[in-house]
Amino acid sequence: MNVLDAILTRRNVKQFKPDPVPRDKVQEWLHAASFAPNHRMTQPWEILWIGPETRAQIPHKNNFGGAPTLLAVLSTPAHTSVDRDEHYAAVSCFLQNFMLAAHAEGVGTGWSSAGLSEKVRHILGVQPGYEVVGIIPVGYPEAEPAPKERAPIVTKIKDLP
Ligand SMILES: Cc1cc2nc3c(=O)[nH]c(=O)nc-3n(C[C@H](O)[C@H](O)[C@H](O)COP(=O)(O)O)c2cc1C
């Protein structure tokens, strides 16, 4: 699958098959993700591989669609708000890389904001200063969600003199 196809066909998957995804494959996609742009090579991402005991404590309406693998992706602490924003941006690039790499090999991902809650931060043992950018279920999709329509990009482009 070429990059453009991967970008255009990736979906936010909500329901997964129980079949496990080999850990070394997930690690391979995380490695690829780490080639994301990041200012001054801060590499501001950390990954929590969520095991069953921890997962059972996280409140979520459908247990992350039954995904066999669940990750939390964190952004590391920063001294200034600019650095904090840059870390968050870099981790978002990391996540997109990861999702595309998985998708290109037939594995779906989702993105949950559940890690924004203090309760979930506590369950995950997230230290002060870290941001939980996403909780990411990973697995073979049970169904491919339909594409969500986007606004024509020309409506988002402003020409400057
Ligand atoms: C920062 C961020 C937070 C998100 N949080 C959630 C979430 O909590 N629950 C959810 O169902 N989807 C979440 N999503 C996924 C979006 O809902 C999804 O990407 C969007 O509906 C477009 O669908 P698509 O990715 O399949 O094109 C999040 C996406 C981003 C970038």
UniProtKB/TrEMBL annotation:
Tell me if Oxidoreductase is a UniProt keyword of this record: yes
Q: Which cofactor does it need?
A: FMN
Entry keyword set: Flavoprotein, FMN, NAD, NADP, Oxidoreductase
Q: What InterPro entries is this protein classified in?
A: NAD(P)H_nitroreductase, Nitroreductase, Nitroreductase-like, YdjA-like
What is one Pfam family matched by this protein?
Nitroreductase
Do you know which SUPFAM superfamilies this protein is assigned to?
A: FMN-dependent nitroreductase-like
Source species, domain of life: Bacteria
Gene3D superfamilies hit by this protein: NADH Oxidase
User: Where would I find the Nitroreductase domain in this sequence?
Assistant: 7-58, 61-140
Q: Which family does it belong to?
A: Belongs to the nitroreductase family.
What is the name of this protein?
A: Nitroreductase
Q: What is the lineage of its organism?
A: Bacteria, Bacillati, Bacillota, Bacilli, Bacillales
